[in-house]
## 1
Amino acid sequence: MAAARLSKGRTIAAHAILITYTLIALFPVFVTVINSFKSRKAIFADPLALPWPEHFDLVGYQTVLKQGDFLGYFQNSLIVTCVSLFFVLLFGAMAAFALSEYRFKGNTLMGLYLALGIMIPIRLGTVAILELMVAAGLVNTLTALILVYTAQGLPLAVFILSEFMKSVSDDLKNAGRIDGLSEYAIFFTLILPLVRPAMATVGVFTMIPIWNDLWFPLILAPAEEVKTVTLGSQIFIGQFVTNWNAVLASLSLAIVPVLVLYLIFSRQLIRGITAGAVK
Amino acid sequence: MAAKKPVRWHIAVFLAPALAVYTAIMIIPLFGTLNLSLFNEEGNVRVFVGLRNFITLFGDPLWSNAFWNALGNNAWFFLVHMLVQNPIGVALAAILSSPRLRMAVFYRTAIFVPTILSFVIVGFVWKLILSPIWGIAPGMLDMIGLKSLFAPWLGKEEYALTTLALISVWQFVGIPMMLIYAALLSIPDEVLEAAEMDGITGASQFWKIKLPLILPSIGIISILTFVGNFNAFDLIYVAQGALAGPDYATDILGTFLYRTFFGFQLQLGDPYMGSAIAGAMFAIILLGVCVYLFGIQTRLRRYQF
């Protein structure tokens, strides 16, 4: 955008607003993390001070690591998220390829049927999902969560990926067909590598709600050995309401991994959201 | 050509896994739940009762009061999002998209941070900050001389719901910001240059040129907010518990559904009434989506560049 140049006053105003909002966005996280490193007295005496050496205290972390099985919860969350993500991406890409590449009877109808799940939340079916899982003996297993999250992630994945696949040139696919590649080989060797950026976007979009979900772990898998980190920290923090050191430490432990992952993938995420917009 | 075989099995193979999981875990349970709302249990036998569950839900004051309370609270929850979250999101996006703004990447990354945090973290962190015992909020108000304004907002019936809605706004403002930001970036330079040639710049350029062009995105954000709010549960559950205190002042449809079908404390879970509530939520969300698809989306002008 060449011609538009902001005047100095407007630039300063823009920065002032953005900095103010950035502070509002980050302040609660910041306060939690700094106070988790302080002694109980310092937390109350001066909550906004940094953890200087004289107040530095890891008692909160010691309590948390001694009492809660955080490592186990992390492992459960990691398994559930990664496996669901794998199936969402694989099944989603396959269905998106079928819908965007071939003309067949019922193509549009199939697309609409799959898109229904974008608007209607899967939670409304919880009563019957619970009955189904009880009947299948899957209550309190990670499999139940993986199945639910795969179904939950598929509609959006199919929608975004088929939009992307429509933009892959036909010449490439036809060249592959002339070379005698099967339709499967075309999908796995030509298309999948080309839509990798879109897959990353879908991946991040799918991952965040799965990792953060409280509803389904609470209902389908509340047992100790299959608790996810979100449910685990919710119950754990609930037990320590008066132990502020422990509460702040466990909150920090829950925030930091997500924050690190976000900082690594934020470019991918933002590029995905603004895809097509940045020319 | 290979693709013109009489039966193209590969299409079925590509579609089958997604279709199977989606149908079995999402569509069938969804209709299963709607179906279940027409049944009830009499002496351990499941019997068909027609619309009697819905008559109880809307007719029996014990149920209908709770339902209308939850629906009213939910409507207010949604209204706060529409009036606060989306305008702030649009404003931030408009500022972020101004040309030659330095550190735009830093700002948008930072403002999006709360969105990726789980409700558990958000709920507890704000509970701590607003707590009268710890006193970060009263302390900060004291610094600017407004300590008298402080109240235990989460504990007072008249403020609790609005406070929670604003916490949720704080968490999700990144989503409208990003989507609008993307929409603003996709406006072609030629359009903006033409506007500048005609002397339309700055704020009037935003109102007259950009805003009409991003209206479809605002429509999408509104319906996403609607669906998200009418199916919300986690934040209220984390901050106020399943009872959505104080005195059900923060009870929304999600917490009402959870209490009813899953049970809490001494109340036993009732899958049939739970299904009826889920059915009512389904109708509300479907209505909203239809209003959007047929009433709003078709009327918004889309511009092809």
## 2
Amino acid sequence: MDWDWQFVWEILPTLLEGAKITVIATLLGYLLAVALGLVFAILRRSHNRLLSRPTAGVVEFVRGTPLLVQLYFLFYILPEVGITLAPLVAGVIGLGLHYATYTSEVYRAGIDNVPRGQWEAAKACNLTTRQTWRHVVLPQAIMPVIPALANYLIAMFKETPLLSAITVLELMNQARSIANYNYRYVEPITLVGVFFLVISLIAVMGVKYLERRFGSHGKRGRAAT
Amino acid sequence: MEMWLGYMRLILDGAWITIQLTVFGCAFALAVAIVAGLGRISRFATLRWLSVGYIEFFRGTSIFVQLFWIYYVLPLMGFTLTPMQAGVLALGLNVGAYGAEVVRSAIQAVDIGQKEAAVAVNLTRYQTMRHVILPQAIVIMLPTFGNNAIELLKGTAIVSLISLSDMTFQAQVVRAQTGNTAVPFITILILYFAIASVITFGVRLLERRLTRGLDGVRA
């Protein structure tokens, strides 16, 4: 095995092009996951069984099946019912939906940790359900789980290569086409690995910072109640 | 109808490959997780560093990249693997890295008094680990291991991209041959969910079995 630096410099611009798509897909997918996860978590706690039961079913099903198959589903089956999505759009929706089921569990843990007294106090102050969620429960529920949410950003980032299977030209797809074109696998695939490793390690440090910042905040908040 | 039966067989053949990958992958991941997890809290600095290096590397890079690297780059260094071997190796090493952290945190979660008691009754380090710490730590690990096993099951879908004919691969074949997308994909989604449910159920049974007799010890 030999490592060719010349080849590395040649392919770097193309790979960076792919890295850009990877980052965009990660960020958009994560926004969707964070928003949709909260909706799932709140619906699951609804007193209306027509809302809570189906939500629980959807969450369990999506969590129990592979993201790759879900992506195929969005990309190949939806067009048959008249909804044609661009590859990147299908990818972002797939990532967002899949990880929303994970973040919804995180939110759920956060919501369960809010002391009962807070709900009762809100009721005593005659707040509506909406006001209780918005001003009392969610602020206390979300703060302590921010580090756990951030972990799923890293996890999702590492799953983006799956989008190459539905023809999104992200980093892994660029690397594979370079590799197939030049019959050289070592450099492109190793570079992709290095890219993921570096970003992940930086992100892990970020999560550790968030843990110090918000984790302790959460503890203080709970101790006071 | 006749035709669909034939295609159904194809998908079930794929399901068998998926199950094999999951079982072998889990077994390998479990072994790696225990070794690396114990190495992570070893007395010997070299072992600790090796374990940390392995864990951070495999948790930090994508499973996808690892699989491709094992399948396409290792042969250039003289190790040629079948797609099945590459799949089991990649899945096992990847999930094993996550599992190692579970093993570590579970062992550290066992009450320190248990270790002190073992020292007081003059058990060796090996005996302490084998008869006192691990039986209690395993109960803590189990639920997370169950989740990891489901992650591994879902990870098996990506081996279809290195030409292993697992369930996802077969669904693609059926799609190409029949032009029908919905039937094969909905079928495999249900099958994946069924296998995941079996894992969840099995872990719950195992948990009940292993917690027997630990009632007084656990908080």
